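Entry 14. Structure prediction run on the chain below.
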Amino acid sequence: MEVFRDAESPPRRLRRPVVAIGAFDGVHVGHRRLFEIAMAHGDGGEAAVLTFDPHPAKVLSPKLAPPLLTSTERKLELIAACGIDVAIVQRFDPAFAALGPDEFVERILVRGLGVSHVVVGYDFSYGRMRAGSTATLAMAGRTRGFDVTIVPAVTVSDIVCSSTRVRQFVLEGRLGGAALLLGRPFEIAGRVVPGRGRGRAIGIPTANLALEAELLPPVGVYAAWAHLVGAASAHPTGCGAAALRVAEAPVPDRHRAVVNVGYAPTFEPQGTLTVEAHLLDFEGDLYDRRLILEMAQRLRGEQRFASPEALARQIGRDATRAREVLA
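Output returned:
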């Protein structure tokens, strides 16, 4: 999948693109429905996605902006896995936010991307002060010569699929509900960085993550699948080139893991929130590797133990339980 950084001046002219538009945080089941429709309406053109970095809420309402489910890097990997041909990652800044609805259609959709068809969700809005709606977009399409498909709410088990609902499930620790709407387990991704070596000192080495996204489940211990996907890569929208390519299907190195989301109270009464993963049956150097943790089930809350040795014994019991959960 090709990735462009500027919707107004892409590095090449797209071939009759069918463009799905949205923030697409989490790339959940509802988002993927838009992608499926875009690909189905290709008619010899390219299926494309127009998304934004940073998330529009970070610019429009920074104090109220939600924690993100996925980094831009991970979002693009997930979009690529759906089979999309091109992703346009438009920088969302005050100047872009100030475009009126008509300017957005003319400068971005018509002149910039040359859309033949646009696919949006039922609650889509665009332009300054969110003045544009699905109704005005459909009217603009009739005037400017492109088709518009408005996708109704997608439900899973009678739950409307939305990034907001996924976040709610994660924050409540209801990982099964989050996975239902995502169509896959909730993930925590990041680069492995040096920690304080306390796990190794008690015979249980852990990988400490520099997190990519912002949302975490409640403090506690979890069973997870750990995917090693190579060295950490540069942020896609930070590259110097106007376009780059995101691999459609990276093949990960997969391991069972026990993951702690918490403050390590056994060692520090007032520690810093960290995510540490102990990979079961693994030996090797993880530093600077990129790790994606598929969070399967919460095993217990975080506890303060009387000694590091007592903690080590409990982690051994956690590992046994994690093997059962992930069997």
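Residues 232-241 have pLDDT under 50 and may be disordered.
Filed with the rest of this week's runs.
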